[in-house]
Write a structure and sequence with these properties.
Distance between the termini: 20 Å
Radius of gyration: 13 Å
Strand order of the largest sheet: 1-2-4-3
Organism: Rhizophora mucronata
Number of strands: 7
Order of helices and strands: EHEHEEEEE
Protein name: Endonuclease/exonuclease/phosphatase domain-containing protein
């Protein structure tokens, strides 16, 4: 399973989206974790739709906590959010024919 975790650290704007699209194109990952993307609300909705993942879960950016996003391909894996906090996501990943396993994104 291909997973990419990226601490974007205040990334925003067209350049960030261009780099993100290239990353997705070249690595064909099933799960993408973005830390501190600095987008929220309708702008974050638009970004998530634009990059083409069918499964999306976001902890919104608030104050000094800049958010965590989990994006995945529903056609290949299932993701269950077990716990959410403004600083982390605890998720369970279910791949066909394999035992479930957990991941904490901080």
């Amino acid at each position: 399973m291909n997973i990419v975790a990226w601490n974007c650290n205040d990334a925003s704007g067209a350049k960030f989206l261009q780099v993100l699209r290239l990353l997705i194109q070249f690595h064909n990952h099933l799960l993408l974790i973005l830390g501190e993307p600095r987008f929220s609300g309708t702008i974050a909705d638009d970004v998530c739709k634009d990059i083409g993942f069918s499964g999306i879960y976001r902890v919104e950016a608030t104050g000094f906590s800049e958010g965590i996003w989990a994006l995945w391909r529903l056609e290949t894996i299932q993701v269950e959010i077990l716990e959410e906090h403004f600083r982390f996501l605890y998720i369970q990943i279910l791949e066909p024919g394999k035992l479930p396993w957990g991941l904490v994104a901080v």
